[in-house]
Every structure is written in C-alpha cells, then in structure tokens.
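Question thread 4412

I'm putting together a teaching handout and wanted feedback from people who do this every day. The idea is simple: show students a protein as raw sequence, then show them the structure tokens that encode its fold, then repeat with a second protein so they can compare. Below is the first pair exactly as I plan to print it.
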Amino acid sequence: MRDTSGRQLSGPEASTVTSNRRRLLVAPAEDRRSFRSERRDADLVIVGGGLAGTCAAITAARAGVRVVLVHDRPVLGGNSSSEVRLWVLGATAHMSNNNRWAREGGVVDEILVENTYRNPDGNPLIFDTVLLEKSVAEPNLTLLLNTALTDVEMADGRRIHRVSAFCSQNSTTYDIGGSLFLDSSGDGALAFLAGAAFRMGAESSSEFGEKFAPSDDYGHLLGHSIYFYSKDVGHPVRFTPPAFALSDLTSIPRARNFNTSEDGCRLWWIEWGGRLDTVHETETIKWRLWQVVYGVWNHLKNSGEFPEAENLTLEWVGTIPGKRESRRFEGLYMLRQDDVFDQTQHPDAVAYGGWSIDLHPADGVFSEKPGCNQLHSRGTYQIPYRCLASRDVDNLFLAGRVMSASHVAFGSTRVMGTSAYCAQAVAVAAALCVRDSRRPADLLEPAAMAELQRELLRLGQHIPQHALSDSDDLVRRGHVSASSALALGSLPVDGSAVPLAEDRGQLLPLPAGPVPQFGLRLDVSEPTTLQVELRQGRRPDDFTPDRVLSRRKISLNQGDDQLIKVDFDAHQAEAGYVILCLLANDQVRVRVSDQVVTGLVPLRHRGDQPENPDTGCPGFEFWAPVRRPEGRNLALTLDPPVLLGDPAAVSNGVDRPTSATNAWIAEFDDRRPSLSVRWDEAVRIGRIELAFDTDFDHAMESVLYGQPEDAMPHCVRDFRVRWGEQVLAEVRDHHQSRWTLVLDDVVSTDELTVEVDAMNGAAPAAIFSVRCYSDPDTRILRHEGGARP
C-alpha cells in the first residue's frame, strides 16, 4: 500500500490511510452518534502488550497463529517501555546469584540480544523501536495500540466469545472475536471481566505452608514506582518546584540514600501504594509518587548539600507508574514458595524462573524497613504450564503478572524476563490448541504436553532438565565431525593479575574419572599459605558449590609469576561442572587470561545467604561472575587436557551449557574451523537451523546498564553453509543466538558443512546445535499466505 504522496507504507499505518482530496465534510445534526466500529477475528486475542504480551504475540504469529494484540499504551513493552523505563531481567538476576547461563531463550532472547547489539548504552527509546519492529514484521499479527479493553462477551458461561475495545486516538471501537484469549494486561482486565477467580494480597502462612508469607505490619501488596532521569547541560540550572512537590523529606527514612549519581530504575525503591487498591487507586499512588520525585529533586537542587547538582536538569519523569502487583488469577495450579526453594520438578514444566523471592514493604519509601527482602533459590526452578491456564474460563490463558502464583512465589515470577518466557510457552500452546481444536487444559494429557515441550525446545525455549528429542531432525541420523575440537590444556596468561582480596573461582566442566592436575600462576608479596578447594553442587548442572571434593593448602614463597601445581587426588563420579576455588589471601594475586571460551566462567564469592528456618530460606554461598571486561578467566593449565568441544554435542538437544558445554568448540589455533554432518545415504534438506553462543550467562539489562560489548565475543560472526562445493548461504555480521535458512528448493545431499570465518570476539569458534529438516516450513499452523518463521 502507498499513501497519497506515493510513499510505500508498512506496519499498522498501512491500514489507516485515507485520501487527502476532500476539503470539507459537512455533517448534519443527529439525535446521537456512535463511534466507528470495526470487526476483527483471530485465532488468539491477546490483551496487554507489555513484554509478556509482545513476546507471546510474536511467537504465536511465527507459529502460524492469527493474532490480534490489544494494548492500551502508545508503545509496547509495559514496564520495559520508554514510558516507565525499567530494565528487563529474569533468572539472570543481574548475574548476582548462582544461576549460570540462565538468560531466557526464544523471542525474549532475540529481543535482548538485538537491543544489546543496537543499544549497548541502554536508551529506552531504542528499546521501544526493537519491540515495534519485531511486532510489525509479522504478517499474522494485528497490532492495536492505544486501544483499551472495555467489555467481554461470554459463551456458555465458561468461554470468552468476543471482546470490545476502544482506541481514543482514532475514535474507533473494535469488536474482536477469537477461539483463544490471553490476558497479559498486568491488572488482569480480561480475566476480571470474564469472571475468573483472582486473589489480591498475600495468603496466610498456613494456606500453602509458606514461612515467608508477610505479616500485617509488613503489608500484603507490592506498590508502584516512578523513576526520573537527570542530565548535565554544562551550565547552572535553576529549579523551582511545583506546588505539589513534597517539601519535607523527613518522612522518608531512606532520604539519605538519594544522590545525584543515580537515576532511572536504579531508584526502584521510590515505591509506594501497597496499602491501597493497586488497581483502582493507581492515580492516587501516581500523584503521591510525583510528590516524592519532585520533592527529592528540589532537595538535590536547592538544599545546598549537593553542589555537583548545579548543572543538572530534570530531563524526564515517568508519567505512569511501574506496577509490581495487583490481581493474580487462579490457574490449574498455583505456584508457591516450596516450588521455588525446593526446585520442584513438574511434568508440565514449560519455563523457569530464577529471580529471588523479592518482597517489599507495603509502605515503600515511607517505611522504616529495608526496601526489599530477597531470598534466593540455589538455582533456577521450573514453572508448570498449569499456572498459565485459567481454572474457570476454558479458553483463557494467563501470563505476565496475572499468572497463577501465591503472593510469595509471585515475588519471584513477577519480573519481566520470567513473565515473557511464560508467555512464549502460552503462544506455542495456543498454536497446538488451534490446530487440534483443543482447550488449554487438554494439553496436560501426557502426549500433548510432550509435544508442547518439544516445540518449545525447538524454538530455543530452554526448560531445565529437558533436552530436545526430535525424530524429524536429520542430523541425528548423521555422523558429525569437525576440523578440530577443543581439549583445554591451558588458558594463556595476559600479563594481568587480580588480588585475592576475596575468594575467586573458575567454573569448569570435567569428565567422570580422576580430576586433572591444575596449574596456576601467582604473584606472592610475602611467604604465606594459600587454600585451594575443588567444589561442586548437588547435581552436574547445579552451580551452588557446597560440596567440597578436595582441599589443599599450598605453601608459597615470595615472588612474582610463580607456577604452582595442585593435585587434588579426587575422583569425579559423573561428568559435570566443578569450581576451582582460591580462598582469599591478601598476600596473593592470581594471573588471569583474556581468552574467552564457551562454557567457562570466572567467579567470585560475593557473600552468603544465611539459612533461616523462620522464613524457609535455604543457606548457601553466592559464587557469581564478574562482568566483562573486568571478569576474566583464571590463567591455568590442566593435565591431562579436558575435552570441552566434542562435535557430537551439536545433536544432543541442549542449546546452552548445563552439565557440560553442550557445544562444538574448535581449537584455539584452528585457522579454518568447520563442522560437517555426513549421512550414509542422501537426505532431502529444506530447512537448516543453527544455534550459537550469545553468552546466556550475561544478563543484557535492556536499559540504563551499559553493556561491555554490542555483539557477544562467543558468537559466530561470519560463516557459510555448503553442501559439496555448492554454497547454500554466506552470512556476514551475524550476532544472534539462532539462525535459520529456509531453502527455496529442497536439496538432496549426503554432506553438509558449516565453515566459520570469524567470531565477534577472541573466542574460539563454537556452535551449540545444527538441525536439518526435510520440510522447509515447521510452523504448527500453516495459514495460506502466512510468513515463514
């Protein structure tokens, strides 16, 4: 479609163009008028275009589902949008706990990787454009912005038939029908109007045996926050506060925490409203938060205590609050505290969480209590599908903040990375339901659930303790080989050394059997004794190192660049990760390496979580990574070398490190790394999928945080795919986790090769998976004219 100037249009504006030739419209008086009405129909109607709703809409559209996304704001993203400006986080938890390689996969990963590539400085406006671009690119997705749900029409009392919505910007009422509906609206507007059971506030400790359930003194709801940004304009700026600004900050116990160096969502603790109705009194809460923000800025500018504020201006203040909690709707199961801390295994696991159980006092910034109480699980935990399907409305899914969880468990699931991840699972479930004319609850049948989990894994949706078993993948029938495979014998010294002012560690995967001898290079300021330990978790993929396999005390003489060798005389019962721990010693510095390798992470002991029987909180040590560029692997040797990059790993069904690297990794000195699959007889290939390493251990906060790189150094940048001498694809400047080639003509071959020409950094070539399919179109639904994923 083109507009009246001949300009080619795309996206939502294409459907709203009208001629500019009419100069005058004369409309006679009438008794009354109605707004223009448009009818829309879809397979899946999504209400709420926060990050959860957006990721669900894109995922479903790519699966072939016809989607209408109704969102009451001008941009997508909800709390992550430029209107609120909260960073996206999930199980990575700012890389502060023991959740290794925990960044969510699928579409939310694609969005975060793309935002990091385009926007490493974290500009929230750029993040808006990434979400919008991904959404309008999908032909199966109809996006209705600035459009608010107004009514629901039910059928047979247990099914939603149609919904009504109104857009104030174009004075249009929409009548939207669908076979399935998803509420990702935050406040649960759709589920509420449909009559679904919900909860608001905290359960008593006795209902689910939750020891962390809050007291009345603490409060039973989380409040809202509003953030602000400041800017140095290079000359003095005067500030006259509005009359409604809070004039006396003595009512804010944490006023001493305000300073001129923090803004945006680092001020998450400017929170209030947990003792009010966080749905119907949101405007009251917003005004109170505005009073606080402008009062704080007045204090920073005019109290005389902050001379560094002289050239600062107030660049931006949120116009809507970021909501934490309101209604939570009852699904087929309600997640609870024990599911998080016990890392419960669910047969219908479709997602995972890993943020702490993070509860805040209801009085927020006016409370004498700490701004939050965070209790961590020892690792990620599974989230079951049953939490995402309504108990009461047969064709209603729940995602985002409204998913089925107790108030305590919600303290972890509420963060946007986790919410979006669950919503992606809903999107694939919806595609299966539409294809087979099923209700959401029907997918709990074991064969249907196995198919849902398989489809999610194929899309990059990692599910803890699950691997993809895909009989359609031709690579599983082939023989995989490579130009080389990394057997790690050493990580080279780069000349730098870090002090052992705190415990340091190196996360390494080891095979079953005798533990190799380790070599370390140390600078020692005076004679001392260094304690070195080899630790592991409870499972091969558990990164909380509370089991000591062996410990050694090493006597050291004064001197720089000393090579010490450590023999632990230990035996690894089964293959899995261990942590080589160097305990703190002020007389020692350990040499480090600039070498980046898939599946290796340097760690530091950043503190402990004490066990607390009163809250049910488990006790353990936090061994967390240091962000690059400061975070570098220890320069070490292993004798004998350890195979890290077995080519066979590309067909094991796991696309990130878990109990092993799960990747083919080339040797450091391989100048022309390549990976080949050969078949005993020719196979027909119509689709090729590759999974690359974009460092799933890196949190990739969407805003405010500055990221150390735009493209992850572990990721393949330039590569080609060929069969025989024929090049099927040649790719340059790649930076995403996944790449797909859909062939116009199916090829018949007994060999396929991926050749790596360059990486995005100094890492050796690495690939998590190669998958080949005969059918070029793997969508669950195949609407005529729909786009390939």
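The second pair follows. I'd like the answer to focus on this one:
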Amino acid sequence: MPSIAIGPRAPRWPRLLLMLLDVALLVLVLAVLAAARYDLTFSVKNRPGVALAMGLSAAVYLVTYGLLVARRYRWASTDEMLGLGITALCLGASLSAASVLTDPSIVPLSVAVTIAPSAGSAWLVLRYAAVRIHRARQRRDRRGGRRAVVVGAGSGGQQAVAMMLQDSRAALHPVALVDDDPAKRHLGVLGVRVAGRIDDLDEVVRSTEAEIILFAIPSAPAATVERVVHVAAESGCELLVLPSFSEMLTSEGAPAGPGRRVGSQVELPRQAFRPVLLEDLLGRGSVETNTEAIASYLDGKTVLVTGAGGSIGSQLCREIAQYSPARLVMTDRDDSLLHAVQLSIDGQGALESRDLVLGDLRTPGFITDLITDIRPDVVFHAAAIKHLTLAERFPAEAFLTNVVATADLLRACVAADVDRFVNISTDKAADPRSVLGYTKRTTELLTATFGTTASDDARYMSVRFGNVLGSRGSALTTFAAQLAAGRPITITSPDMTRYFMTVHEACQLVLQAAVDGETGDGLVLDMGTAHNIEQLARRFAALQGFAEPRIVYTGARPGEKLAETTLAAGEPDERPFHPLISRVRIPVLPRDLLLDITELRTGVVTSGGVQLVRDWLRDAVGVVAPPPAPGVEDASTSLVGPTPGPTSGPTPGPASEAEDDATAHHAPDHHDRTAWTSHS
C-alpha cells in the first residue's frame, strides 16, 4: 500500500492508517461539540442522531480526502493545508445539509456549522505536533555532527537548516542563526533560533562552540561576505557557502572558476555547501534587469554570437538561450570550445546542429556567407584577440582579428539589415596605451560608423567592461596555476589595480545595455571599485587553502597601465537607462581612414606594414599615448615594437594635434549607405 512520511527519517506509515487517525480525531471533535450543545448529557433520544452524524462525517472525510488530497500531497506538508481546508468545508456543508433536511435533526445546526473549523484546527494541531516531534528527534540524532552557525535567516538560511536536518548523512548540525533583520530577531527556523546579528557572530560562535560558519545569503553584497570571512579567520572556524540555485544547476561546459567543479548533468548534491570563492568577495550580488525588455528583442529572433566558445561568448549563449530565440547561431574557430558551449546549453553536444558554425572570421568570404545564410536579427560580436602582451608582440594579428574582421562583419550586417549589433569592447579602449586598447577602441569607432549607414530603426552599439572573474587567461586562472605548481605569484607592481566582475553579471548587463542602446552609443558597465592585484592574489591563495604565497614583481609590460579606467578623459558618467550602465557617444571614423582598412589588410604582413598599422590606429583613435612612467616603455612605441624602417604613414604629432585632426573630419551623412559598404 502506498505510504507517506513526515520526513526522510520518519517511519513510513500507511496512508490509510494516517487517514483513520484523522477520522478518530474528527469523531472526537464531533462528540465534544455535541456534548457541549446538550449540556454534557446524551439522552437516549439524541444518541442515534449523533452516531449517524459521526458515520456521515467519517464517510465524507474518507471520500473527499481520499480523492482530492491523499494521492496528491505529502502528509503534514504546506501543500496539504489547502486540501484539508477543502475537506473541512465539504464536511461542514454535508453535515449542515443533513441537519436541515432531517426531522428531527441528526445534530443541532450549531454543531454542524462549527464542525468544519473545529475539525480543521484539530487536524492542523495533530500535524504540527508530529512535525515538532520529528524535528526534535532529527536535532537529537544530528548532535554528533560538526556544529554550524548559519548566517542568514531568510530563504537561504531556512534551506540550509532544512538540508542539514533532513539529510541523515549530513556532517553538519545547525546550532544557531544570525541575521541583521530586526524582524527576525526571535525567529526560529525548524527549531534553530536566531541568536543575534551578524556583528554578534564572533560571540555566537564562542557560545555555541561552533566549528563551521555557513554563509546562506546568496545575493549578499561583497562587504557582508568580507565581514563574515574576517570573523571566520579570527575564530578559526571553517567557512562554507550555500550557492545560489542557478549555481547548483551549472552543467558541464560552463566555464568553471578556480576551485569550482562542474558536472555532466544537472544534479543537486546531498551536501551542496562549498568553500568561499573570490567572486563571493568581489561580486555585488544579483543584477536587476528588465527581462521583459530583453525578451522583446530576443524572443523569436535569429541571434548570432561570434566568439561563442570564449568566456563571454559562451555565457552570452547560455543567457540568450533562456529567452527562446528562434535560432541561436554560435560561431567560433575552436571546435572544442564550440562542443563545450553546445553541451552546456542542450546537454547533447552532438555537433550536428546547423546552429554551430566552425570558422574564422578572417577567412575571405566566411563572414559574407555566414550572414547571407542565417540572416540574423541580432548579432553579439565577442570574437577578439584579448591578451595584451600577445597583442603587443603580434600587432598584425590583433589588427586583422579585432579591426579588419569587425569591419567585415559590420559591413555584412549593414547589407543584411541586421536590427541590432552589439560589439563587446574592453576597458582598455578608454584612453588606450596598448595595441589591444587601440584595436578595441577602433572597433567602437567602426561600430558607430557603420551604424550610421544602417536603417533608421537599427541599433549599432558597443558595450565596454573590464576583467571577468574566472575567465580563461584571467589573473585568477594564472594565480591558480602558479599556486598549484608551487611557484611564486607574478605581479606587475604592488600598486597595480584592476576592475573585476562575474561573467554572469557582465552578460546580464550586456543584454540589458542592448535594450536601451542606440546607434553610436558606448555603454560602459559599472565595475564597482578597483581592486589591488597583490591583495587579490594573497586573498585568493588564502581562500584556496595555500600558505602565504611568495610574490615576484615583474614590472609593467609594454602598453600596460597600472590602473585601468572604464571612462576615457572627457567621457561623462551619465546613466539615463540603468544605475550600472553609463552611456557615452562614440564618434564616427573619417572616410579616408576607413577606406585604408582594405589596403592595410594585405599591407600589414609586408615589410613596414606593422608601422603602417601603428600610424593608422593612432589616426583612427585620435590620441597619442601620454609620456611613459619611469622604467616603462613608451606606449606609442610599444604599439609595434622597434620601427622596421621608413613608412608612408603620417608622423606622430602632439596629442592636441591628433585630437584636432580626429574631430575635424567631416562626419558622413546618416543615409549615405554606400560610402563604407562598397569596399571589401
């Protein structure tokens, strides 16, 4: 016979036995109500009616509860409460009808009317007592586990306490909670009391002799996490974190930060608590986005993502897939990365889908065939060379990938009437000093320029942000490899700072920025506060369980800044759309510089071609790098390394002259669509 239980470790009682227990309680309640109505005396005349009422009540309960509740809801669960209410109403209505239609009445009408709330209350008391007894036994049985104080008494804390108490193999035993909400000061969660505020955590840990601090506020700001980390370090407690539900559902193929494991399928582990990660300290909690507005330009549309195998591209694909596009076409030149991103989205990774396109944007004809074939409505351009040092060493490669391929893609998108084009840029494009910065700034200028030749309702914009935590090639990945190999951590300078954000936060804001951005907009994501890289490295080593690392300073590399900025000089910090998104206007490129791309495509690989690229980038961006800091190579020279010989490009002039030249060029007419599209 099917059975139910009030908890994973409770005896599994037969469903019929539990129903008979309810019937016995119902008969008892009816007897008490009838006795009260008859002044505690049952005459021979009244006994048959009361007996008939008891039989009728039992029959109504068994039929109603058996059909509507028993096979649908777990006994003593919250869901069962609605079923009990319906059962009580049916019981009251049936007994009241029987009382009115019989002569003499089987029971007085007052008894028939009050049976529903009285029986319902009795059933609830029974279940409450059963649950309390069960939970008390759970806490008694779990006292052998490691004692844990839970930070947060909201939904996350309640989930954490329930997981620890209900899992017979859990190694943790909750002894107290702390929460800053005054309304939760005396709250009890499954018998575990709130013992104070987060500021009282140190005292609560000592008084309860806790060994574990479990942080259960998935959306907490970094400052709150920092407070808890400090208390854990001072008290010697191990710190664990309850991840968000979306993090628990991370599937294979999704990028995994250092110390994070991913599985091949969606699976909720029995003990879903993990060590604290660096993104917990740097992240800023959840990002509020307008999901309806995002869905309005993605739902039912054909979306193309270039560089889909990269850290940003792959996460964008996963985020976009949730908005039900008609097609999500993913292209990359790395077949293994394409396999991984498809596996993370549909769990199959068969590589047979027409929405997976293997190819290099630099291959002649590839972009034209791709855009002509799929006819996208929305394009997210994330393909790029992104490593600063390699871009400095091989500027021709950075130019061909970041500039030439972007220009070709924009030209094809304009010709195909793409509605929305989002260029993924970087904070190094703000006042650039490196090849990477110059090329990415140029992609912003190209996006604004080609956008002026698109249709009136099209939107061509760039989104600029900084470092992404845990991405391939990021500082954290480098630190993790060095620590694992027992090597010292290499850092440019003790004064170097960088901005960081999580990949999920970055992609959410990219999708939001594309809601409000217009042609010619540069949308700059708020990266929070800059973090000192050395302090970040030491904190990362501590969180990963390594001893105090040895730091080696390498000095600034060519083109590298000690401190990045997200907004260039003269760019206002205006946020008309979203509190975390600034909007700046990107100028258009002069026509003569734009037409040079066709010549530079072939000339860059010839003798002196690299210098031509350097001069063209300088003119396109319209700035000359400031004088270098002592001991740092001049940024303008670092664009190309030593000059190979005489060049045909213009001679670098003062910054003011370059800026004047850049702003004096005539901007093209918005409807002159042939000026940039007729050259391939």
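Top answer:
Good format. For the second protein you could add a caption like this: Residues 6 and 76 are 6 Å apart (CA to CA). Confidence is low (pLDDT under 50) at residues 1-11, 250-271, 623-680.
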